Fold Carbohydrate ABC transporter permease.
Amino acid sequence: MSKGANNTLLQRNRDPFIRIKMLMGIILASVFLFPIIWMLFVSIKPEDMSITDPIKWFLPPYTFTNYLSVMAESDVLLWLWNSAFIGIATTILTLIVTSLAAFAISKIKFRYKKFIFLFFLAGMMVPGEATIIPLFEIVKSMNMLDTYAGLILPMIASPIGVIILKSFFDGVPDELMESAKIDGCSHWRLYWNIVLPLAKPAMAAIAIFTFIGSWNNFLWPFLAIVSEELYTLPIGIPSFNSTYSTTYVLPMTVNAVASIPVIIAFLIFEKQIVKGVSFTGIKG
């Protein structure tokens, strides 16, 4: 074992509050996990079962027929597909647009680029709700309402993504760029072969938050969608729950179907998500 690891273990053993911190961490984790656990247990209870004691939600009998009922009575799989497709497409296009813009502002010399960068900074100060009406009018005039393009294209503008990547690209040594130019590299090759591979941590952070934002987006799809075939999860689930307002089981089942893929994705990409949060400094 290395000396640094030994010092870390010694510091951890010397911390008189380590047990209290661990206990608080377990309590906080339980508070956040309890709604998810309760949802999963409710989703496997018989639909017509009457529950008066909260403890009985966690006790047998159990059944998985609710999931078959939800698949038959709702379009939850279609909503999942729409949310995943829109989220992935929005994420890919956002990474392309923000990385190209950040590279141009950071590494290409042209007039007024500082002034243009101020526009991106100003964009962070404008709440998204303030742009909804002009955005709706623009999309309507382009005949993109109630289309995938109308759901994806307005969401790819990400000022915070440009700012993060611009700050990252500024850290790439200019000497490296100049030597590559001497060897005949064009701006595209500088971007694709040199700068972009170095920016993987920043790109991963932006991708994570862009996809989460698209997955949870309610307001814009609510305004831009008319056809039920284009419903995403934030739109489809409330419409389904409104027809079962007097029962818990089926609404919890459809929420479980929508949540399980996200939970699995979080477990798979946990390290990348934590690194993304720590890299961007975003907390909450």
